[in-house]
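User: Let's play a game. I give you a shape written as tokens, and you guess the letters that built it. Ready? Here's round one.
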């Protein structure tokens, strides 16, 4: 059936309905927005044509990994070296029973401390140990075993060391002035004194001493 209407827009149809006494209102549906074209995908992120691609991350500067220092956790402390030394000596105690007499002198022990009213560090335990005779600079270990050593010079007499003091350092450690002074005075009293950089050097020095191979030229105070 045809009513003879010819309309080409919602507005014209609405006018015809109004003229015929109709209260019906025609609502036009909104057209969906066109989809934005996706033109590139970078690092898992979508961006439009008008957007700029993310800038590349700046290159980190510094030494190559092969030249970087090992993490501190992987570097041995003096404590680690000393523990390793006593473990190695325990393994050869059957061949060198004297190594069981080696003992540590805990001068370098880390003690808890607080602060005075003036802001200076103060350790109650350190004060007690100092009152009991603790002295700065004394070597880390002592082997109370005497050993003779025959000098290689023609006609020279043999000498006898009263014992062996060992100052143990890390591979790149440095001596303090108080440690140098103690090593010097102990040498003057007839003790062999060795500065070992790492547990391997300390182990070799102890074995050489027990075998009578540690002479004045092998001793070090640096």
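Assistant: Ready! My guess for every position:
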């Amino acid at each position: 059936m045809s009513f003879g209407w010819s309309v080409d827009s919602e507005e014209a149809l609405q006018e015809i309905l109004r003229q015929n006494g109709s209260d019906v209102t025609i609502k036009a549906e909104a057209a969906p927005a066109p989809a934005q074209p996706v033109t590139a995908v970078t690092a898992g992120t979508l961006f439009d044509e008008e957007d700029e691609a993310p800038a590349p991350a700046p290159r980190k500067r510094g030494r190559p990994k092969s030249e970087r220092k090992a993490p501190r956790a992987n570097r041995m402390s003096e404590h680690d070296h000393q523990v390793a030394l006593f473990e190695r000596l325990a393994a050869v105690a059957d061949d060198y029973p004297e190594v069981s007499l080696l003992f540590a002198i805990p001068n370098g022990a880390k003690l808890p401390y607080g602060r005075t009213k003036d802001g200076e560090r103060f350790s109650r335990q350190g004060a007690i140990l100092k009152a009991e005779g603790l002295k700065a600079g004394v070597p880390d270990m002592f082997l109370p075993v005497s050993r003779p050593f025959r000098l290689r010079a023609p006609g020279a007499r043999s000498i006898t060391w009263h014992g062996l003091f060992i100052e143990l350092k890390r591979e790149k450690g440095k001596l303090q002035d108080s440690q140098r002074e103690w090593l010097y005075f102990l040498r003057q009293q007839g003790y062999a004194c060795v500065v070992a950089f790492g547990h391997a050097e300390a182990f070799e020095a102890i074995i050489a001493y027990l075998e009578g191979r540690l002479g004045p030229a092998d001793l070090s105070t640096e």
